[in-house]
Amino acid sequence: MARTLEELLGPQEAARIVEFRRDLHRHPEIGMETARTAERIEAFLKTLPVDRVERVEKNGVVALIKGAAPGPMIGIRGDIDALPIQDETSTPWKSTVEKRAHLCGHDGHAAGAMATCAYLSRHRGFAGSVAVIFQPGEEGWAGADLMIKDGLFEKFPCSEVYAIHGDPQNPLGSIALREGAMTASVDIAEMAVEGRGGHGARPHETIDPMPAAAELILALQTIVSRNVNSAESAVVSCCFIHAGDPLAPTVIPQRVALSATIRTLNPAVRELIEKRFNEICAGVGMTFGGEVKLDYQRRYPPQMNDPALTEAAVAALTPVFGEENVKTKQLAMMGGEDFAFMSEKVPGVYMRLGLRDEAHTAALHNPGFDFNDLALGYAVEAFAAIVAARLPLGA
User: Fold this and answer.
1) Helix/strand/coil for 255
2) What local confidence, expressed as pLDDT, does residue 395 receive?
3) Between the CA atoms of 210, 214, 216 and 222, what dihedral angle is there, to the nearest 10 degrees?
4) Are 189 and 259 spatial neighbours (Cβ–Cβ below 8 Å)?
5) Is the distance from CB of 238 to CB of 225 less than 8 angstroms?
6) What percentage of the chain has pLDDT greater than the value 70?
7) pLDDT of res. 62
8) Rounded to an integer, what distance in angstroms lies between the CA atom of residue 281 and that of residue 366?
9) pLDDT at 330
10) What is the DSSP string of 13-69?
């Protein structure tokens, strides 16, 4: 059975970890600009008997813990950046920064990774080493990719990598993982419908981009329903549109700007949707006599859990969590995750750790969300169980 953080680390160290998490929550930082957070991580690591601490990509921090015998290296990732959303909780550790908050639980991910450092640095019964990666820029900045490009896996040559994300949809004490796709790819399409503006009373003298933009949105939203196999998962959502001026209600605008997000689990479906975007934008532009400019950006790949490592992780986690609490049948999430960049380079497994109890029911990215500190012990137990299974001493 899983132990509490106090049982794993002792009351004093457990309290330090919780306060570390709440301090990060009070002082959230965005994207790759996480200087204070990185400094706090380094300061805490200096109080632990880890073997090496190094910066990667400015505000990324990696701690190395060597086992009792030589062996391969595995990586554990905890992301550390916050979101540009207002914190509307009433906790004493509520965010002190306007419109910035840890509403995706990365403060808890960082604390879980730190607690794992505290535990493994004092329980080195494994053959090999563990690189604990504190990564900024998950929320749209592709921080994992930037750390890789700065030499993460050259400096820390991991043979496999693991990450945990808090999940308030699943109950405290559970963990979910599956082989194959865990999260979707994330692509962004930015479009500009270019026409010729003019007087709203004389539309025949213009090339009106407004009806063209309306047709474009409707056509794009039919890609999934009419071009993608219904057995596949995909999402196209047009989420932004801007045109004209509310102070000029009689003016047909020159252009309409709009954007969409695209999510897929299958690389072939991803290719198909990008192809259809290009065809539809060109076709709408030709039909209305203007032009639709398309900037299609591939942001995050899908997170694909390695089948063999997933099977091994399930076997390691089941004695700790109980068979009923290791959930392997849940559907993939259509949200994105830049841990996918790491598991493209090195075989990896991404897991969702249950947070839900009576006091923690708010969804991720909700202004009322706060990480459940009771889950920190489960995070340590999960990582420690995988380390023991994958780096067995005396094997």
Assistant:
1) strand
2) 62
3) 180
4) yes
5) no
6) 100
7) 98
8) 34
9) 87
10) HHHHHHHHHHHHHHS--BTT--HHHHHHHHHHHTTTT-SEEEEETTTEEEEEEE-SE
